[in-house]
Amino acid sequence: MKSMKQPVSIVLCFVLCLLAFPAWAADEEEPWAFGKVSGQLRYYYFTQRDDVDGQASEDVKESLALGGYLKYETPWIQDVFNSGVAMYTSQPFPETFNQTDRAGTNLLTSQNTGITVLGEAYAKMNIQGVVSSLYRQKIETPLINSNDSRMIPQTYEAYILEYDEDDLRLIGGWIDKIKLRDTKRFRYMSEVTGALDSSQRGMWMIGGEWAPDSFESKVYYYAVPDYIQTSFFHLGATHPLAEDLSWHWQLIGLDQRSLGSEDAGDFNVAEGGALAGLTVSGFTMDVGGTIVDDTTDVTEWASYPFFNEMMGYSNNRAGEKALYLGASYDFKWVQHERESILCHNA
């Protein structure tokens, strides 16, 4: 049976991705009366080689994966009810670049083997603009999000209420479990945040975002009962100076500490950051910095919301100070909204 498992997974991967092609074309057509089918094909190579004391490390990480997703969403019934399911897959292809002793890229499992998972399976209900979302779903907030920078995004078993209208977004609810990018298993939030493996606790979340004109603000609070609580804020604005010339700024802060009975011990940590930048005819230059107090490392669950978060490092260890330099160019003159190039260092 084991010898058949890999070929079957590869076949499933190709079937899902081939079925996704007509879904791309459907975006230009009239809406389908029976809902919406969408999909995406991904092929991803990742390697990481660290130096230890100036010497090449033997701990090399390397993966090459083929995969994607196929998603079906029902139409909104009377503008009140909606549901959807999404299947995700990531398979080692070819196996030459996916040795077990080089795992750890988050493209595949911790053993560099394939993943196929029902990542989304949700029902939604809309009552006067307040949408409730139940069970497996994506969530997009500063600290809890899909972290979709590899093959398969993070998804959550959660029960969420959200209001999103014009410049205001309000969101809150209970997040029971999380599925990380390198596994098909959904685990309790307390388990992945460092509490005892036997604990079975989820997370409360509440937050709001307000973004009128060129200003934006975010305030969020996350709490795993009797373990950890996190408060987060983000402020930013863009100020035009002339045609094709503007400057912008960001202020970001985070406070994280033990909660309730402090089952994981008494701890607290804070991080702050500031950034300023200038945009001239599509070219943007940024300078910023962050500082973490020296008590303990920041606990994170997904893509980190600070501007100096890199693909492999969040620069949020105890006592860490980071300088951020960034540059990007927007190719808006080619009339394609997704064409841009960026470079940053921290």
Automatic annotation (TrEMBL):
Gene3D superfamilies: Porin. InterPro entries: OM_porin_bac (IPR005318), Porin_dom_sf (IPR023614). Residues 1-25 form the signal peptide. One of its GO terms (molecular function) is porin activity. It comes from the Bacteria. Keywords: Signal, Transport. Pfam families: OprD. GO terms for cellular component: membrane. PANTHER family: CHITOPORIN (PTHR34596:SF2). Belongs to the outer membrane porin (Opr) (TC 1.B.25) family. This is Outer membrane porin. It comes from Pseudodesulfovibrio profundus. The lineage of its organism: Bacteria, Pseudomonadati, Thermodesulfobacteriota, Desulfovibrionia, Desulfovibrionales.
